[in-house]
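#dry-run=false #mode=assembly
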Amino acid sequence: MTETKVHDVIMVGAGPAALAAAVYTTREDIETLLFERGVVGGLAAVTDMVDNYPGFPDGIEGLTLAENLRKQAERFGAVIELGEVTNIAKEGKLLKLETTSGDMLAKTVLIATGSDYKKIGVPGEQEYYARGVHYCATCDGAFYRDKRLVVVGGGNSAVQESLFLTRYATHIDLLVRSELRASEVLQHDLQKMVDAGKITVHLQTATNEIVGEDNHVVKVVGTDNASGKKIEFPADGVFVFVGLKPNTEFLKNSAIELDEIGLVKTNEDLETNITGVFAAGDVRSGSTMQIATATGEGATAALRIREYLEGHKQTS
Amino acid sequence: MTETKVHDVIMVGAGPAALAAAVYTTREDIETLLFERGVVGGLAAVTDMVDNYPGFPDGIEGLTLAENLRKQAERFGAVIELGEVTNIAKEGKLLKLETTSGDMLAKTVLIATGSDYKKIGVPGEQEYYARGVHYCATCDGAFYRDKRLVVVGGGNSAVQESLFLTRYATHIDLLVRSELRASEVLQHDLQKMVDAGKITVHLQTATNEIVGEDNHVVKVVGTDNASGKKIEFPADGVFVFVGLKPNTEFLKNSAIELDEIGLVKTNEDLETNITGVFAAGDVRSGSTMQIATATGEGATAALRIREYLEGHKQTS
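#status=ok
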């Protein structure tokens, strides 16, 4: 079934980029529908404390920021629907979206589905998902008070979240496949925790298997790259921070151009190769995976969407 | 005199773009000095209520937002110096800045000087500046309670600020050189005020002179484009909203490339044609004159500055 109604703009996703865009579009009386298949507020909503979102001198809890963004968008009339968009295609001058609520028509579309946590793909990872294997320290760290943890990864997130998890865990083994790639200040802070005996860093160490007993994780099996030796790390839980995966599977049958890692390509007006389809935030190739950047791009995308709908460039 | 100290980054300006960038750079232990010749917080600081900066569901006063941004940057160690940068040039691999505090050296520079209000350039405009002629309704509107005003301009700002000024003024004559170029929703709201007799819109009307008596404005003289007839508009004050002027005069002797209206050109990494010199916010060609966009670009610029200083691209 296809709705006969033509929406001004349908936004795919309801994270910071889409919510910021929706504040702008709805304030300008552009009718705006957002589709969210997961959590309103996106990754911001599952972040403990956001220290660097400009405007909050002492930081703000991710969940509070997400709620603020939602309220602000809804205040001006944004409608958020829980459901999933499964394809986007041109339909004459309009865009047809296949969704879990049926087909829908829109004059413009904003793709703002963000990116998800990457998995390492080892035995036990799926089996113990959310009951021993985690990707969000804020959400699940507190379950490991006075427990022993393994963290997998060597980038900024892995180090930052390891530092955070020392609030709870008695000890953390940090398994780094090659070398640490975290920023200097993070490595400096990490060293303090190493010196304090809270974290042990294992460089050049592969993660091979997450092993459980009686329905809970008991250890992680790794390999020392140099010697090829197996090493066992006793652990009550595992946190994996090995990067992000763009949420663009739903575009695989569309004509929308993606880059080599699956992010949506746009021009500097944030428009994709399909006219009327825009992208903003963590899902956009060239974005920087920051909430500030996502909301900034959301604002810009909204202005471009208005121009597209009005059929001309704004002047002021 | 040239300081021998080499700064990690000198930011020219301390508006939302620079302050957001400074939050990011200082959190990463990048030593950061900001130069501000006017008001910390830039145009945000002289904006009444900011309704569309993402994260504040009921809006936030511009001055409060500016203060928040300043506090957040200073919390992590940003240093703000009052003074002016008068030129930027390459000095080997470094950058030399001529400033009112002497010459300074930096590894990187962020240009974030924003844009200023444009003047109309008619007799009386300069003479009655700030005592009858104004460019900021928030700052000076309250002086015109129960007074009669003229507003000059036809874009979004002119209409938006006219609507705001009806809080104070008994009547507003809006002089529009050609046609209204404001958004539909603004024109809709304007019509309500026209119907209520609060605002009279004069299309195709040139503004020729601001006339005063005894040290205060008494009228504005305009011309009806069609008939060529002079028209007099009695007024206690005049507000001018005819656009923005990029603050890039200080770059006129530099090699930094500007666009046709004087905005700084950058690539998608926000780097100018001079390596190590970046630009963000209202002064950047392609930016959208929104606080959200400025802070987003500030964050992005900071990440690019870090990469430049580290000599490689970040991965996570």
